[in-house]
Design brief:
Strand order of the largest sheet: 3-2-1-4-5-6
Mean pLDDT: 95
Number of domains: 2
Largest sheet: 6 strands, parallel
CATH topology of the largest domain: Rossmann fold
Number of helices: 17
């Protein structure tokens, strides 16, 4: 192995993260999957943190006329000529997201069987398409979102609830566009790559129910606003289900996935002489519990030499954080702080965790890095790692150490990227 690989473990881990993100670059992933132009109109719609970059990739590679509108997170827009880019809030929805969703529904009205709707979906689309169902307000949806984000519910559960509070999710957009052909290009950010979960599946049939949405709120002790409780109890208009004829002309193509990005990082590690092991692309659970398990596995690998170091353990998925403190930090900062505590200064182990969209939760960092001297440096600066973990203050901890990973918006999103490096 080249000696410079281990000379700077932080830069090595950052290089793996960059390889994972590059594998999901819309400019590379969109063009090979574009359908043939239709006889009629082409209307482009979409939502997500990568939606604007995907729209730009469509414009750069499309032969013929097109128009449309997509919505992305504030700060994630890129210049386009024919597709309008709107911006809205994430993860808690705002009025701009409602306006964007209404514009998207208007864009697909009145289309015929010779027309094509090209829908561009990526992670974050659910919060960005914040058009409430009849009888609900934006404030109702905002409150439910806030409660769910703090509850520990996973992304599949949150999206089940969101679908049943929405006028556009859970296949409702596809139903509105019928009988036009609908092709959805999706960048997956969800464990299992289920198209019905990506952005709450606005063009995908929904197998979940109002009863399941009610059960999820009950499971996590979430007491929704009265209007939401009444809406879920009434269950007046269900989402389009599998086999609904309005969705017969709809198809979804996954153009980038967490697994493909992990494989790209593994290839980069192998080329550098570091043995890669992929632990999984769909790891879920409480961030600090996942951290404890991975710390134990990394310590055992370092002790037993299996695989022979240098080795790097890669994983993806989306952990959750049950917020009980008042600190700052997304799930990756929480994971890494818990990992540092569990490693307890174990020699020869370094780690990086980051959200591939460049934003860890609601903060301005993508993630952070941990080294064998993290706790020693923290103690020298008067930081109590365990106490800051109890306060959910991963961001504050790594900010003081200067160990935050800052990338800015990457304009793609294949969920979290974790790499634990074990050196000889």
């Amino acid at each position: 192995m080249s000696p410079d690989v281990v000379a700077d473990p932080r830069e090595f881990l950052r290089g793996l993260m960059k390889a994972a993100i590059a594998a999901a670059d819309p400019a590379l992933r969109v063009p090979p999957h574009l359908p043939a132009p239709p006889k009629g109109r082409t209307v482009v719609v979409g939502a997500g943190k990568a939606a604007a970059a995907m729209a730009r990739a469509v414009e750069d590679n499309w032969e013929g006329a097109l128009d449309g509108v997509v919505v992305t997170r504030y700060g994630h827009a890129v210049p386009t000529d024919r597709i309008e880019i709107m911006e809205a809030a994430h993860p808690v929805p705002d009025e701009a997201g409602g306006r964007a969703a209404a514009r998207i529904l208007e864009a697909v009205e009145g289309l015929g069987p010779d027309d094509l709707v090209l829908c561009l979906m990526s992670g974050g689309g659910s919060a960005l398409l914040s058009l409430p169902a009849a009888g609900l307000t934006l404030e109702d949806k905002q409150e439910v979102n806030r409660l769910l984000l703090k509850s520990g519910a996973d992304i599949t559960e949150m999206n089940c609830v969101r679908k049943h509070l929405s006028a556009i999710k859970g296949g409702r957009l596809a139903a509105a566009a019928a009988p036009a052909r609908i092709v959805t290009l999706a960048i997956s950010d969800v464990p299992g790559d289920d198209p019905a979960v990506i952005g709450s599946g606005p063009t995908v049939a929904d197998a979940t129910s109002f009863a399941e949405a009610r059960a999820i709120l009950e499971k996590y002790g979430v007491a929704p606003p009265d209007a939401v409780a009444a809406h879920l109890a009434a269950a007046a208009i269900e989402t389009p289900k599998p086999g609904d004829p309005r969705l017969a002309a709809a198809e979804t193509i996954l153009i980038a996935t967490p697994q493909a990005s992990l494989e790209a990082a593994a290839e980069a590690a192998a080329k550098a002489g570091v043995a890669p092991v992929i632990w999984g692309d769909a790891i879920e659970g409480e961030a600090r519990e996942v951290a404890r398990t991975m710390a134990a596995d990394a310590i055992q690998a370092a002790r037993d030499g299996k695989p022979t170091p240098p080795a790097v353990f890669l994983s993806g998925g989306e952990t959750t954080v049950t917020v009980q403190g008042t600190g700052r930090g997304g799930r990756n900062a929480e994971f890494l702080l818990a990992l540092a505590v569990a490693l307890d200064g174990a020699a020869r182990i370094h780690a990086l965790a980051a959200d591939t969209d460049g934003i860890d939760g609601t903060e301005d960092n993508a993630g952070a890095v941990v080294a064998s001297d993290t706790l020693t440096r923290a103690q020298a600066l008067g930081l109590d790692a365990a106490a800051m973990l109890d306060d959910n203050d991963g961001y504050g901890f790594f900010e003081v150490l200067g160990d935050l990973v800052m990338t800015g918006p990457t304009l793609t999103n294949v969920n979290d990227f974790r790499a634990i490096l074990v050196l000889p």
